[in-house]
Model the fold of this input.
Amino acid sequence: MELSARSEVLFVIASQLIGLEERYGAHNYHPLDVVIERASGAWVYDVAGRQYLDFLAAYSAVNQGHCHPAIYKAMCEQAQKVTLTSRAFRNDQLPLLYKELNELTSFEMALPMNSGAEAVETALKAARKWGEIVKGIPAGQTEIVVAENNFHGRTISIVGFSSDAQYREGFGPFPAGFSRVPFGDAQALRERITPHTCAFLVEPIQGEAGIVVPPEGYLREVAAICRENNVLLLCDEIQSGLGRTGKLFAYMHDGIRPDVVIIGKALSGGFYPISAVLASKEILGVFSPGDHGSTFGGNPLACAVARAALRVIVEESLSERSADLGEYALNRLQQMDSPNVASVRGRGLWIAIELNSSARPFCEALKELGVLCKETHDTVIRLAPPLMISREDLDWGLDRIESVLGLANGAATETLVSAHA
Ligand SMILES: *Cc1c(COP(=O)(O)O)cnc(C)c1O
Done:
């Protein structure tokens, strides 16, 4: 087939697939119109065979890179043996995942779930029950404090304490017992705590809010306030954890140790939904058989995948790579002189470019140039490439980001795109 005729056919296929999705699927997302068919490492390929550098990495679920061969091997080998036993019976993978999580993080216990939101729910349940049976708060009266602009998932209880109106509207009534304080303001937390407070839930760096790094010393002060008041500190490291910020967990930058850590996303390297809650025996020990559970949580396929995904993070020094490449990228972007950019911030390979206008047209233009990233909260471009990305690929992407952001307006991208084509 002639090249142009072939690309015409592939374009029609992409349009048809987009049409099916729009017609038969719920419209709870607004994706960029790139139809991905396969991926490898930091690169993804659309149905027309065009390649793109992935600067989102599925919101940090693919820190290890797409289709990592070691995780793929573990998944295939386990899938040929046994995939799901339910927790009615024991399996030979779960104990090994527990042991390896303990060795890696030094938390005494873990509780495996599937999605991030489920792990957050699990942590909230553990904190409430701990509040009642260990702290001695009267039954049904525990209080949990959360931060403004939080993102912890989409269940009814979690959106119930969101400060984003769209997340809440139409979904009430919501569970009671939650209240919000400004993120970054330790004094506000101190004032909010009552004898009924059992926990403070916080992202060490707020991801969906736009990679918001709190003021220096905030987490240390929060940890001290929680300790003084016998309140559990719950860190949601679902997006910030497992290497993303240049350390295994973002809280480590502050030299603190939370009581509960919630992980997900990169725990599977993108192969499978896997999440977990890590904590002490005193906290996770509050659960008795029947208190909590999940049909798929802790299944042998998930555990084999998570074990391989964790090994990759350690063996390929992904936290260290993130620290080095992140510092380089942040310096480069902060030196960029662009009328469109208000500020650049981040930690590790997790960088927010705050624009003076809507970020969407710039993300669309970047897609045309072969770089995939996604706006968050309208004016922020979030950069979160897989942590295994090479320095050369990173530069390739940053070159394009700088050229798109250097343009006076979105319309001029037409010129740029044709110049690159
Ligand atoms: C993605 C995310 C969640 C929710 O995870 P899901 O797997 O989408 O349920 C919770 N907290 C944070 C910080 C996240 O980034």
Notes: The longest helix spans residues 3-24. Residues 69-315 form a domain with the Aspartate Aminotransferase; domain 2 fold (CATH 3.40.640.10).
